[in-house]
Amino acid sequence: MKKKEEKFRNAIFVIVNEESCPLYSVGEEIKVESYALSLSNYKPGCLYLARQVAAVVATKEKLGGISRIPTRKTRYDCGGCEGLIHFEYKKDRDFATLQMKLLDEAEEKRRKKHLERYFGVLRKIKLFDPLEDDALTDLTVLLEFKTIPFGKMVVKKGSPGTNFFIILQGQVEVRADDGSKLVDLGEGEMFGEMSLLSAEPFTHSIVSLNTSQLALLSVKNFKEILKKYPVLQMFLFKLLVDRAQAMTLKSGNIASGMTGELSEIAPVDLFQLINAVRKTGTIDITLEKGRGMVFFREGEIVYAGYRKLRKKEAVYALLGMTNGHFSYTKGIPDILNNAPPIGGFMGMMMEGVQSLDESRAVKTREDDDTGLLPEP
């Protein structure tokens, strides 16, 4: 006997609540049409959400003799993974109204006006040089634009990283705890990328020095854009390296015997400093749960170990550490003199910091700290 084909109704839903969802935001629509589910063209599909939507549009009830999606229950949830969203039935596509069509047309006009006003401004920014016009168009419609008055706090120290900021006009100042100026940032410059990549709060406050216009990209859209356009990853990493080099010049050359606390300088910044000045030496990190070692030859990492982890896995684990003591000594063991780099430094750092917000702790078995070097 032939199995009866399941029927799915065309419908539109809208996301009305979001709790730490890694993909979707309030206000985004979920459309079901011709047995297909679609969201914004830049968002990936979630299988948890697809399963729940399919269950909803396959359920029917009789309303005035017409079989339709139930409307008595209008609020649903996605089932949840690491986050949760709630969505509501908006309108059955079979009964689309003129008002809905007018709203769609209004949204299209808004997007067009948005592009006409800001596309040219963004095209002049060096960060977006590698992007084709179509890619820059995708990015432009995702941005939120704000005008910040003179003297207003843009970001307060300790606040979570929720946006990537691009300065379109004006100037902002990065301030130390005592209120003194650390650095000024002007047109075409950006900030907030490190907080988004590492999921750490802002380490300094940022204040507008005059009326400034900023473009903001939310953390979700920031991650999606980086995945879709890897060329932007390289630019952002170069930006981080340049800032690390500036720190090196300010604090002096890295010397053998240098020690410090990870609470004062993050591992990613420490590693970048060594890479920037092409040092050959060893970073020894003492942590509560064990000891880690990273070996550099002319700025490239040739080996790393932390408890049971080795090479790249050890580097990624150490990048997430915030409490511990480190020391730097000149030179590496003879066995590593001819060892090749364990990976491209720039790509390895970018991949490592991006993974920090996905897993803030590395689960390893308890083990001793011996055997951090490879066997001869």
Describe this structure in words.
With 376 residues, this protein is an alpha+beta fold. It has three domains: 11-96, no CATH class; 136-229, Jelly Rolls (Sandwich), CATH 2.60.120.10; 244-356, no CATH class. The chain is built from nine helices and 21 strands. It has helices spanning 47-57, 98-123, 133-140, 193-198, 219-228, 231-251, 267-276, 311-319, 345-356, and strands at 11-19, 29-33, 36-38, 61-63, 66-68, 75-77, 84-91, 144-148, 153-155, 163-169, 172-175, 181-185, 190-191, 205-208, 212-218, 259-261, 281-287, 290-297, 300-306, 309-310, 325-330. It has a six-stranded antiparallel sheet with strand order 16-21-17-18-19-20. A five-stranded antiparallel sheet has the order 3-2-1-7-6, covered by helices on one side. Strand 19 and strand 20 (309-310) form a beta hairpin. The longest helix is centred in the N-terminal third of the chain and has 26 residues, at 98-123. The protein is globular. The N and C termini lie far apart (68 Å).
